[in-house]
Protein 1
Amino acid sequence: MTVRGVPQAVISDAVVVDRVSMVFNEGKSNEVEALTDVELVICPGDFVSLIGPSGCGKSTLLRLIASLLSPTSGSVLVNGKSASQARIEQDYGMAFQKSGLFEWRTVEKNIELPLELKGWGKAKRRERSAEMLELVKLSEFASHMPWELSGGMQQRVAIARALAAHPPLLLMDEPFGALDEMTREHMQAELLRICAASQTTVVFVTHSIPEAVYLSNRVVVMSPRPGRITEIIDVDLGSDRDEDTREEAGFYGKITAVREALRGAEAVAGPRGIEDR
Amino acid sequence: MILRGLRRAALFFLALALVAAMWEFYIVVGPEKGGEIFGMRILPRANERAMPHTWEMLQRLFDPEVRGQDRPIWLAVLGYSWYTFRMALAGFAIGCVFGMALAVGMSRFRFVERGLLPYVVASQTVPLIALAPQVAALGGNWGLPKWMWVAALGAFLAFFPVSIATLKGLSAAPAASLELMDSYAASWWKTLTKLRFPAAVPYIVPGMKLGATAAVIGVIVSEVSTGVRGVGFAALTYAQKATSDPAQVYTAVFGAALLGLSMFGLVVAIEVLVMRNRPAEAN
């Protein structure tokens, strides 16, 4: 298997996307070619962002990795297994733009949901949810209802839920897209801390350039019509990123690099909404 | 909390007093022999026999059912109402279980919904008064006690709103939550019990409110046509004596009203219980 960026993909890779194409409504008049010939290898411990304008297929790619969709052609491996097997074995946790917390469950019961589905006993579940709440610093809200929490806190609960079963992989689809800028930056720092503490590999969909650059060690730039990867930019801002990192020249340099990569993609496909903030 | 309760109680009695006042007002101003509007006899007669005074109705509650008895009629009516209440409650419970099960079946398989829904709707157009004797005869053949088939007829009316509300509610779960359950590879049954059903509760509760009152109506109507001696049957017997004892029939009406309110109160209690941890806008 020869994959762009990494010459030899090995079975221990966290995610291997091998020549994947995705066509919706194939053969019908409303046929859409969402992804064409996408290849991507993600190593354990990587934080990879998928960035690109609307319609570039970044969410589709995430859903293919999650096995919520099946590719029209090509294959996806997660943890060395087929994506569908990885889903059945709950090898990944997922978080969306909407926290998707169940409003009839307390915060801790929400975090315990994936554990319930795995058939864990009550005591073990409670122990784990307490641990997760401590990780996201919401211990005192264990027995609150989700709607009593702010948007940022709800999103932290959703992350705790996604990580509750200690999956090696975390898939996130614009998880901070609905938050205000201050909360968003705070959440980004929190996410880095949580992922470092739990040693989780992350695939992160966003359309904010600074967010992608701040969080990732690799930014995957995509372009639409048909959706494909145009460039992969390595970012190395160091593991001790903090608020000052956002002021550094290296940070701005990478933002420019990603922006230019996106412009290059745009030159091919025409302009679309990308957040420059 | 207490203040709100007091205000609601005060409003309830105020409304009751208003109805009584309107009743009395009509007795004073209404035409003695009834009246016609556009050639149709619409206005009820305002004489003593057709419209007894409210205080006469209240007084009547403390007189015996038949002359010579010691027991005041309110006790007798309360007994009838209690009997009807239990049948309506059984009917309501059966209707809820059946209605929800039907909705789950319909939401699980589209062909069940397509095939069954027209019949579910059509079932509600069958006049109960025609159906009741048939069901009674059938129940008689099977050797079931009478109250059971009256309860079954209550269930026949109660299941419909519960079923439609549940069907609507089961499809109300947010797409993101369904995708989440999908990402856990959760089975259909787990998705139903952990997500779809809890998400349907705010829809089911109003359906249950309609179902509870429908069960009461179903049971009372069925009593009349099958001769089970509950409050509906009592109302019918009392009405036959309306010329000599016009206030008596209203004691049964009070009993039926009390019964309806109790059923409704029961569902409200259930609502408070199941909705206590929901966000305010869903309440």
Note: Chain A touches chain B at residues 66, 68, 87-88, 90, 92, 94, 96-98, 100, 102-104, 106, 113-114, 116-117, 145, 147 (CB under 8 Å).
Protein 2
Amino acid sequence: MSRQTQGYIAAIAAIALLAIFPVKFGSFSLLSLLHLDVSILSEMLLFAIAAMSVNLLLGYTGQMSFGNAAYFGLGAYGAGLSIHYLNVHFIAATLIGTAAAILGALIIGPFLLRRRGIYFSLLTLAFGQVFYFIAYRANQFTGGEDGMSFPRPYVGFAGWHTNLHEATFYYLMLIVFVAVLTAFWLIVRSPFGRTLQAIRQNELRVRYLGLDTNKFIYVALVVSAAMAGLAGALYGLLIMFAAPLMLDWHQSGDFVMIMILGGAGTIWGPVVGSLIYVIGKDIISTLTQTWQIYIGALFVICVLAFPRGLLGTLLHAIARRDVGAPIVEDTMPHTAWETGTPTGAAAVAVEQKEL
Amino acid sequence: MADYSISRGAFVKGATLAGAAIAAGFPAFVPSRGEAADVVKIGQIAELTGVYVDISQPEVYGAQLALEHWNNKGGVLGRKVEIVLEDDQNDPGIAVQKVRKLVNQDHVSAVIGTVNSAIALSASGAANSLGTLYIVTGGHTDPVTETQCHWNVFRTCHTAWQETQASGYSIFNKFGKRWYLVTPDYAFGHSLAAGYQAVLRKLGGQVVANDLTPLGTNDFSAYITKIEPAKPDVIIVLLAGADFVNFLKQASAYGLIKKFPIAGPQAELEPFLALPPESRVGYWGIEWYYNSDLVFSKKNTQAVNFVKEYRAKHGLPPSARSVFGYVTLDRLLWAISEAKSTDASKVARKLENAHFETLWDGGAYYRNVDHQLMWPNYFAEARPYGTPSDKYDIFNVLDRQPAEKISKPASEQAQACHLNYPS
Amino acid sequence: MLANVAPSVFNGLILGAFYAFVAIGLSLIMNLTATINLAHGSFLTLAGYLAFTLVSKGTSFWFALILAPLLTVVVGVLVERTLIVPLYKRDPMFSLLLTFGLALIAEEVYRLIWGPNGVPFSAPGVLGGGISLGFMQFPTLRLFIALVLAVAMALLALFLWCTKFGLRLRAAVQDTEMIAAMGTNTQLLYMVNFALGMALAGLAGVLASGLLGLSPTMGNSLLMPAFVVVIIGGMGSLFGSIVGGLLVGLAISITTLFIPAANEIIMYILMAVVLLIRPRGLFGTEGLFG
């Protein structure tokens, strides 16, 4: 059995596991054993999607975004505002939220494109904070610090619809998650995705091949924003609330952390990370008031010992043991900061000198 | 490419093994909650990390004391009571998840808690969709008992409106009519400002300026330098928590507090004790105080014992926050025992309009039209060094306003709040 | 309103000096090793708490002002040698994430040691009041902070430009590989540089505790302003951090005067503008981060 087949089987097994997690056998379920509510599983999937959005940018395009929470929050507020003012239903609310996030990326994308590396990251941070403050200040619409409460509309049409209780919501999230995961997988395998990875490794080289890297990165930004926005809209619908903190850099940092914990540059990494972070934090914070120490220690240990993330380390170890099997070029998460080739402003300077 | 100095293989092996072991054994570490059927569980969400721990912790302590008192009397419905505490981490989303966990996994009969207004709102919604009773202990924002009220939600602490009405008249009478407002720029701050502006309109006063400060401002110098040229009669500080401490500390250094009187709707013991004594000035609305005849006389044995017990246990006198926690759990358990059931709508009906005597003189009741606790609000002057016998006795209560006088009339509330009991 | 401009400008500059002071320790560490220290706020808070403990045990404020930063240096260097050294060879992203984790741990540890409540800490009487400047009364503590900053910068400059070790440090900032190839002990350089950064952070922390309420989360509120200052002033330049600080302080002050609603956003708008027009910042070195 080839590694690839093993990979498919593992993926299917994982999805199956996620599906049976909340199912009750008698009076027990895997979920209740861990003393978890099915609602937190939904959150885990949605944060995984948000972390995937960061992964698309870092793991595959080599650009670290510290502002994806802005899209996440835009999604939540988009959904909430449309429910509050336009009385839309579930699917429409989700689509509007996602559209709001896409719009956000379309607007600030051109600014972000002007820089690479750490300057890009800082710009994402700065713009993310600007969105955060707008959500905060526009308190006539958004409720400001108090946040925005909204009901969860039913899924469907006027003729046929169903209310979503938490368990049903979860399975809907699972479907969405699998769809997004598949889309993500298809994207990174596509020529577009390959180009992104090439950009991560050496953007200058890609330019020399005649491709407009700016266009590729712009599309990646928009796709990333769409994913984060989708996750945000659904999260807003999960908790029936939208709050400014959803856009804050701390939230962005959480998504980055989840990606790193699992493994940047891997498909399932964000899911593993989300499992550890969302579920782990929920369990640990229930157990002890000093949970923050454990989560902080988790980050520290992960960075020191598992820089590839848990899944990434595992995959890397497997790949290295496969003597003769092609070893994928190092997917070690790194931004364009540390490669020897000039990037960012320096690259632009070099290019301008050539002209 | 960077490379690593740690041996990968052994580490990965070891870690995977450890991970597997933990995953296998983990359920053993998770405390078995929700097992015993002969315990009544009450969920409490509180801010145990982040910026509000100092005012949230006393609410937890207060509730714990009420728990002990009830359990000493044999519990409720013939069963012992247990509090299941969860940290909402100052995050409305996490608060919702914790409420769901408390109800679905811990099988709590009701939820209490939070000092965070956003969380009060998000948790209210979550509790409502679960059909669980939720009593807000310390979140003051008006919508909880107005436009966003629910049949299953009650609130113990005062509303922003009540606080401004209580202190507004006293401040006007004491200092004059030109007010400079320093308002934290969020819903609660705006409610306070609106409340004071209503008072001023009635009395013919004037808002000289209303400066909106971002939440979490660490430097107020820019605002402080604007105040002096405006020459107000009084500076109204609507800030709370760390902002409050920063502002007073800095205003003191600019000599502002010597030049102008300072006043506001809500002073709390905890942030005041965090101030250096020379900055502990002003005249403040205060929701409760542990040492004042205007709040409770020596004849109120429940209050006297509460103070004694709390202080012995925690080293600090109880604050209004402690009282929020205590009264909330106390009344909740009373209502459950009166209803002879933990069914949320039955308990809610019992809570409504039930008058009771408690840790202050004058009694209280949760009003039926909006589920807001109706109780007096007080006005006090700060006393920087306390008294010779008690360095924590930093407030001197001067005045008190009864609930009916400071609240929006029931008819008005009925317009804003639609409880929507399930039929 | 125009009468307020002079006090606002002056206030803004002194506020800027404070922000510069908070940022300078961060800048020093970043310049040499590209370490992004998100635990910077935690070290500020630590110094404040140490000073508070010292003073409550009876030492004078002035003694605490010296000792607390020294203790912070000890803790900081311990952290650096054990946790941060492994990251020097790696992408700066990792130092960012690791220090983020450290900040989480630190906040809870402070809560456990000193309690969740803010503790009353203030500068001694002589620094507590204000000085009349004619057009306004100004807090002595703020002027003192500006003074300490000036003195500290002078000492730092003396060290960097007039000692051999300082020379090597400056050379290392420009080109670490070369200086290592010439035989210098780069690990010692890193350590001393970190210690310097910690000393400055410690000083800033003690002084900040006089301005702000001292609580487990005090330092967090200063973290973002510190970063913004370093970015605007330019990464790789200490002088840039000072100028950046002054600019940020001035911007906040003037914005509060004319458009109060924008005064928290202004910092990020400035940052975005700088990044778009001149990403290395006003005085930054090209290519510090690639």
Note: The mean pLDDT of chain C is 89.
